[in-house]
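Good day; I would like, with your permission, to put a structural problem before you. What I wish to show you is a protein chain and, alongside it, a tokenised description of its three-dimensional fold. Please examine both parts with care and let me know of anything in them that strikes you as inconsistent. Thank you for your consideration; the sequence and its tokens are set out here:

***
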Amino acid sequence: MHRKKIGLLWVICITAGAMIGSGLFVLPGPASKELGPLVFIPYLLASILFIPALLCTCELATAMPKTGGIFYFSDRSMGPRVGMLGGIAFWFSIAAKTAWALLGLAMFFTLMDPYMPVYQIRMIAIGACAAFMVLNLLHVEVAGRFQQYTALGLLGLLALYIVAGLFFFKPSNLTVSDDVAVLPTLTTTGLVFVSFSGITWITDMGGEVKNPSRNIPRGLILSWAGVTLIYVASVLVTAGLLGRAALSGSVTPLSDGGGAMFGAVGVVVMTVAGVLAFLTTGNAGMLTASRTPYAMSKDRFLPPMFSRHSRKGVPSVAVVATAIFMVLILFLPFDAFVRTASSLELITLMLACFAVLFMREANIKNYRPTFKVPLYPALPIFGLLVYGCLILSQGWMPILIILIIIAGSLVFYQSYSRSRIKADYAALHVIKNIIGIKNNEHKLNEELREIIIERDGISEHRFESIIGSTPIIEMDDFSGSRQDLRELSKMISEFFGMGRKDLSRRLRAMFRKNELFAIPGIMIVPVRTALERPYKLVVVRTKGHPRLDDQGVPLSYIFIVRWSRGMKNFYFHSIMWLVQLGERLMEADEDGSMARNGSEDHGLLWAWHTKSSRDHYIRPTRFQLEENPYKAMRELHGRSGPAPIQPGR
């Protein structure tokens, strides 16, 4: 279940496929009744209004790339009661929009039989739901590949439609005779706002995304920008092709636009595009929605059966439960469930904004997103105000249904989940910070630390793979002089991929300013590069040369590390691992065990796996990440051994 198989292309295809659906192939017609050819303006405004939630989601997903999405974010930021509400709201909103897409897919069959009864349309939608359920039960890669091919096909057809439409549309159809009123524009913006829902769905699969620090924010932002361009361009081209009267009366505007260009062939092509749009939304919904009950079950919010998964890593029970949930939604009154789904979607967007505010204000040490919301806190607060107003504009029926869902969630939490959950969340930290109570609960901080380790690939196995190929240089007469540093730079510059003169200059500057880690017998020399490059290590054995400071402690090993900002967390961890390795090497040199048991080629690995009597450090996996590595080393040695020398500035 937790194997990371989703790359950047999959993130884009899932996110874009979730957004492009009825909002493009159905809504432009009714939306144009008030604004005519200027109907593209509400689409642009709706896209802009999604920015706060988009950026907040990017921050949360890079700090906590875990399966569960909004459920996980709201639970860890505002507590289990809000987490329960966030999980149910997220699950229902995804399932409802997916059911809507399946119903839209079934509506295309009315082109063959315009008098098809409603129950047959529902049966076709149920059949499509069953097909997607089977597809997702096969394997996540099967569903992902299907999503990738259908989404790319859809985007290709839409690009063709936009480019071809530029040669056929009539500029006279875009003229506006009346002044555009503000109220109709805002009302229409609220109508088409749902078109962009689905942009946060991929966070439900955050634990399955490869390199989430890079792929999630890039995928979300690229999808948002690309879909915005497609929406605005497609609607503008369609308005130019059909004119106000034909557009406002159309229930299949893009198909009609295709017909205006190429006749029956154009209608068929854009109908195929519409089918692909609903297929991508349906598959994306089934793929992502099932992860919410899975994550809630793993955290004991729901019964254990929802966290069961097949041998192929598919949360099979959660997939089946989600499919059943979608079928039940198909029998609800259309207008009621669409408005309710939109309102619940807006609630999840508000929860994302709230989560960022609480996580930031809690000052939790290991909350370290690689993407941060700009204009904080103004942007999240602006999002809360906008989404709150849009919820109120939905009418009293969705609000009543939401209140019923909230009450039901709280009752279920109190009766089932509460006794099974030990809560620690950011809001508690905020309250304790405000009233001045020292916080002794570190569960959330420890959990975030483990997430960082998994996210950034920080592990002893990775360190072992590095030292297995690390060169060892013998420099018995090394004293840190200009000549020694020049000679050392000449030997390691090619391995580090740096210019010899540049490396020599930087080493001289560090030795001159004493910007080095120093503990008895060991010195660590960090060389940070501006370019993002892999972590590299070189070991210099000095055979007990007098140390380079005034304490006169013999220096046995110098570790020269090349690192960049992208490797910051791994580098901070490696400081302690290098100290452990150095002490084991010194003891092995003293008792001769290195010569007896390890060749020079494999001596580092041999020493790393050998328990030393000097080992008094805590395990690397328990090491707290710090922005200041000197402080981290000082605190570490203060607990377990001699304090290192902090370099002078």
Summary: The first strand starts at residue 472 and ends at 474. The chain has a mean pLDDT of 80. DSSP finds 27 helices and five strands in the chain. The first helix runs from residue 8 to 19.
